[in-house]
Amino acid sequence: MRIGTTLRTSPTLGVVDEPDDQEAGEHSGFRVNRRTFVGASVTVGGAVAVGSLLAGCDDAESGEATEVSKTTLHLRINGEAHELTVDNRTSLLDLLRERVGLTGTKKGCDQGACGACTVLMDDIRVTSCLTLAVMHDGADVVTIEGLATNGRLHPLQQAFIDEDAFQCGYCTPGQILSGVACIKEGHTGSAAEIREWMSGNICRCGAYTNIVTAIAKTSTGA
Amino acid sequence: MYPFSFSKATDERSALAAASSGARYIAGGTTLVDLMRETVERPASVVDINALPYRSIELQPSRLRIGSLVRMSSLAAHPDVRREFPVIVEALELSASAQLRNMASIGGNLMQRPRCLYFRDVSANCNRRTPGAGCAAVNGLNRGHAILAASDQCVATHPSDLAVALVALDAVVTARGGDGERQIPVAQFFRQPGTTPDQEHDLRPGELIVGVDVPTGLEMRRSGYLKVRDRESFEFALTSAAVALHVDAGVIRTARVAVGGVGTVPWRLPAVEQALRGRAPSAGLWSDAAARAADGAKPLQENGFKVELLKRTVERQLQKVAEQQT
């Protein structure tokens, strides 16, 4: 029933062996990289967490995708054109991480509640976990990997470093993409306004004060 | 998530045709994708309606016309809406997060399913999900649940803030289906659970919301939305109040009051409106009128606090809107 391990080329990771979208629970026969290690750990650690932590991992009873439940789409991701045939169930987040290899975009809650998966879609911020990739044929997506230009960090990326606006860093890509949009939208008139318009991004380390400072300073060019 | 076939409708006709064959409409997807992942929703086919032309926001002399595919963020940012209907803007901007408001459509906002944890958990009993299965919330963790318009079959609150504002303003849903076009007042659109909690709204199978009309009126500019919740932002309401007032020559001529977070449907308060009409604004009046806000409430084991909180929410919002500059 299971589709085998697939060899993929990833622009950021090089060639990696990794399980297909539906196969994350199966770990034999391929080299352990960080993500497959995490997957294996979670499977051992607690069955409850598996569904929400493993990208595209579906219940055994849900079966494998048939031809009718796959779609080919074209996306521009960080300026680069991609043609992909995906299981219709694939979220934009899983497509970015598992198919394109852009693992900078993080999966936190997979329910739209934490903001770790925030990306820019046609220039607006969205939670990539709550949207199906197949809905966005022709869209232009920007992830954290696409913010720097010519090796130079985006000003908000630099500000996050300068202001010490993260600790563990897991929420940081989402915070930065959301912050870029927040600045562009003009919702940075005060610290309170920034807090309100950044409320879709949770930071469990509690780096909020410095995140607000980084966004405020970037918005004023300070 | 279970496998499903996916198609994109290019026009209304192809959308309705897909739905008549059993496909579920998807617009923003913020409710449907989430619930499909939880296997609460298991559509065999999904039709994407985002290419349909319901994207306009138009202020006419007698009404505001909102296309059903307008995103929450676009409606909230529209200059005419900001000027003429503050209560709509506030209800929207106090909903969800900036990301979700960029994704979620107005039609989908009305169609969102309950946020009750037992509804979302397929291992729990829920009459909405499985008619006749029983309701785990009635005697369960029900601090956030309804005190109004509930039944022993279901006590889930309606989650939409926008719907509370639209009920207060007598907005009307336009739906189209195989039998043509229909207008449904938002106040009649949502069904109380009664003995059939799985029937949440008035749409017929395959019908599609194409727009929402909000009547204009002298009271619309003096309006606002107050939302009380466990955290300051990105949280559903414990209680909320949408208020619009027209005050002329020191007398309240028109009062519109609806509340959220407390009912299984967005809940209009005619008794409170009646108590306000023809009276002069005063602190005593707000308090007297708001005393009727929870009439008929039946608290559950854990949400008795909502009765008093609701009265205070209404009182505070009446006072705030009355003092608002227009």
What would a concise description of this structure say?
With about 220 residues, chain A is an alpha+beta fold.
Folded structure, characterized:
The complex is a heterodimer of chains A (222) and B (326). By secondary structure, chain A is an alpha+beta fold. Chain A folds into three domains: 6-62, no CATH class; 70-146, Beta-grasp domain (Ubiquitin-like (UB roll), Roll), CATH 3.10.20; 155-220, Orthogonal Bundle (DNA polymerase, domain 1). Helices cover 31% and strands 17% of the residues of chain A. Chain A is built from seven helices and seven strands. Chain A has helices at residues 34-45, 47-53, 92-99, 155-162, 172-185, 191-197, 208-220, and strands at residues 6-10, 14-18, 70-77, 80-87, 118-121, 124-127, 140-142. The model of chain A is unreliable at 1-30 and 37-61 (pLDDT under 50). Chain B has 326 residues and is α+β, with helices and mostly antiparallel strands. In chain B, 30% of the residues lie in helices and 21% in strands. Chain B has 13 helices and twelve strands. Chain B has helices at 12-20, 32-37, 72-77, 79-84, 86-93, 98-103, 106-111, 117-120, 161-168, 186-189, 270-276, 283-290, 305-323, and strands spanning 5-8, 24-26, 45-48, 57-59, 63-67, 172-177, 180-185, 208-215, 223-228, 239-248, 251-260, 267-268. Chain B has a five-stranded antiparallel sheet with strand order 4-5-8-6-7. Chain B has a four-stranded antiparallel sheet with strand order 9-10-11-12. The N and C termini of chain B lie far apart (49 Å). The model of chain B has no long low-confidence stretch (mean pLDDT 97). The chains are: A alpha+beta (222), B alpha+beta (326).
Say what the CATH topology of the domain at 223-323 in chain B is: Enolase-like, domain 1
User: Quaternary state, please?
Assistant: heterodimer
Please, what is the average pLDDT of chain A?
A: 81
CATH topology of the largest domain in chain A: Ubiquitin-like (UB roll)
| Strand adjacency order, main sheet of chain A | 4-3-7-5-6
Based on the structure given, which CATH architecture of the largest domain in chain A is correct?
Roll
Highest-level CATH class of the domain at 223-323 in chain B: Alpha Beta
Overall structural class of chain A, as computed from helix and strand content, comes to: alpha+beta
In terms of DSSP E residues, the strand content of chain A is: 15-25%
- Write the element-wise H/E pattern of chain A from the N-terminal end onward: EEHHEEHEEEHHHH
